[in-house]
Amino acid sequence: MTPSRNNWTKEEIMAIYQKPMMDLLYEAATIHRERHDPNVVQVSTLLSIKTGGCPEDCGYCPQAARYHTNVEGNDLMSVQQVKAQALRAKSSGSSRVCMGAAWRNVKDGPEFDQVLEMVRTLNKLDMEVCCTLGMLTENQALRLAEAGLYAYNHNLDSSEEYYKEVISTRAFDDRLKTIENVRKTNVTVCSGGIIGMGESLEDRAGMLVALSTLNPQPESVPINALVAVEGTPLEDQKPIEIWDMIRMVATTRIVMPETQVRLSAGRTEMSREGQALCFFAGANSIFAGDKLLTTPNPDVNDDMKMFELLGLVPQKPFVKMEQPKTVEAEDSQWQALGEKPKWSRPGHIIERNKEASLKK
Ligand code: SF4
């Protein structure tokens, strides 16, 4: 078996990415088959539990309050609403629910307590529970772990260099710090990025260096294709070619052989043939549901038809790691510390972000 490595260089990764397509596909598929069942694909459902009104300036995101998009903001959902949606997702083949809140960082208080209750409730449905809530302290990560969280998503988005071209309200190091905090618990790490934001090949490789040199590597790596939403600074970006997605998936599989590589945003623009090549190249997870937070996603029935056509089966929950135990709120050993961590705010000017926020 090809051994896992944590010392990939940008040059090595760029060389892999640029291999002749047939060689790249063969190598990625070989590594994939050594470690995974090629006919099993994990299905996750992404649920926006608090939508819009975000104070951050991520150039790709329609939920940033400063941009003029059609996203309607919603307050935090109730535990019952989340439970009902999770049950629906489970009945259509999802083994994981990922709850996303448009927050800069988690704040101790009633809303976080409500999210902890959602985690407890969904873990009792025997589903893998994931959250993506922004930056997180160690104490908050421990409280989520105790509630039964299986995974925490915190994307690096791009290379450290290109990150500064897309976001000015926090720094790349803040992302790494949150991942480090999650690693102090048993919660698995989900972290990936977006291609098609105008980054170079070097930036794509740089992002994979940052992810693959984490030790341990993330258990899940979502690869998103930018969905250019009107009103965001990246609204005019041209869609990427399917071949870019296939190359990115294959390269991710080669440098992170154990991880679940997730085909994430942008699947509505991909043909079944294109997605099939991504699965062949090592993708073994998708997001299901007609929306990914606020952007469109293929209909669940279409996905199930695609699975049937390709002979794929959804992965059962808790295959990679045991189901975490849920500790009830009254038995918790961790108190809310009410910390006010100093997450950075670089505040450099990104012209296109500034222009988009000033547009009427
Ligand atoms: S990506 Fe997340 S942090 Fe950035 S603006 Fe959107 S909701 Fe906020």
Automatic annotation (TrEMBL):
<feature type="binding site">
    <location>
        <position position="61"/>
    </location>
    <ligand>
        <name>[4Fe-4S] cluster</name>
    </ligand>
</feature>
<feature type="compositionally biased region" description="Basic and acidic residues">
    <location>
        <begin position="348"/>
        <end position="360"/>
    </location>
</feature>
<dbReference type="GO" id="GO:0005506">
    <property type="term" value="F:iron ion binding"/>
</dbReference>
<keyword id="KW-0001">2Fe-2S</keyword>
<dbReference type="InterPro" id="IPR013785">
    <property type="entry name" value="Aldolase_TIM"/>
</dbReference>
<comment type="pathway">
    <text>Cofactor biosynthesis; biotin biosynthesis; biotin from 7,8-diaminononanoate: step 2/2.</text>
</comment>
<feature type="domain" description="Radical SAM core">
    <location>
        <begin position="39"/>
        <end position="267"/>
    </location>
</feature>
<dbReference type="GO" id="GO:0051539">
    <property type="term" value="F:4 iron, 4 sulfur cluster binding"/>
</dbReference>
<dbReference type="InterPro" id="IPR024177">
    <property type="entry name" value="Biotin_synthase"/>
</dbReference>
<feature type="binding site">
    <location>
        <position position="58"/>
    </location>
    <ligand>
        <name>[4Fe-4S] cluster</name>
    </ligand>
</feature>
<dbReference type="Pfam" id="PF04055">
    <property type="entry name" value="Radical_SAM"/>
</dbReference>
<keyword id="KW-0004">4Fe-4S</keyword>
<dbReference type="InterPro" id="IPR002684">
    <property type="entry name" value="Biotin_synth/BioAB"/>
</dbReference>
<keyword id="KW-0808">Transferase</keyword>
<keyword id="KW-0411">Iron-sulfur</keyword>
<dbReference type="InterPro" id="IPR007197">
    <property type="entry name" value="rSAM"/>
</dbReference>
<feature type="binding site">
    <location>
        <position position="130"/>
    </location>
    <ligand>
        <name>[2Fe-2S] cluster</name>
    </ligand>
</feature>
<feature type="binding site">
    <location>
        <position position="190"/>
    </location>
    <ligand>
        <name>[2Fe-2S] cluster</name>
    </ligand>
</feature>
<dbReference type="GO" id="GO:0009102">
    <property type="term" value="P:biotin biosynthetic process"/>
</dbReference>
<feature type="binding site">
    <location>
        <position position="98"/>
    </location>
    <ligand>
        <name>[2Fe-2S] cluster</name>
    </ligand>
</feature>
<protein>
    <recommendedName>
        <fullName>Biotin synthase</fullName>
        <ecNumber>2.8.1.6</ecNumber>
    </recommendedName>
</protein>
<comment type="subunit">
    <text>Homodimer.</text>
</comment>
<dbReference type="InterPro" id="IPR010722">
    <property type="entry name" value="BATS_dom"/>
</dbReference>
<feature type="binding site">
    <location>
        <position position="54"/>
    </location>
    <ligand>
        <name>[4Fe-4S] cluster</name>
    </ligand>
</feature>
<dbReference type="InterPro" id="IPR058240">
    <property type="entry name" value="rSAM_sf"/>
</dbReference>
<dbReference type="GO" id="GO:0004076">
    <property type="term" value="F:biotin synthase activity"/>
</dbReference>
<dbReference type="GO" id="GO:0051537">
    <property type="term" value="F:2 iron, 2 sulfur cluster binding"/>
</dbReference>
<keyword id="KW-0408">Iron</keyword>
<dbReference type="InterPro" id="IPR006638">
    <property type="entry name" value="Elp3/MiaA/NifB-like_rSAM"/>
</dbReference>
<feature type="region of interest" description="Disordered">
    <location>
        <begin position="329"/>
        <end position="360"/>
    </location>
</feature>
<keyword id="KW-0479">Metal-binding</keyword>
<comment type="function">
    <text>Catalyzes the conversion of dethiobiotin (DTB) to biotin by the insertion of a sulfur atom into dethiobiotin via a radical-based mechanism.</text>
</comment>
<comment type="similarity">
    <text>Belongs to the radical SAM superfamily. Biotin synthase family.</text>
</comment>
<feature type="binding site">
    <location>
        <position position="262"/>
    </location>
    <ligand>
        <name>[2Fe-2S] cluster</name>
    </ligand>
</feature>
<keyword id="KW-0949">S-adenosyl-L-methionine</keyword>
<dbReference type="Pfam" id="PF06968">
    <property type="entry name" value="BATS"/>
</dbReference>
<keyword id="KW-0093">Biotin biosynthesis</keyword>
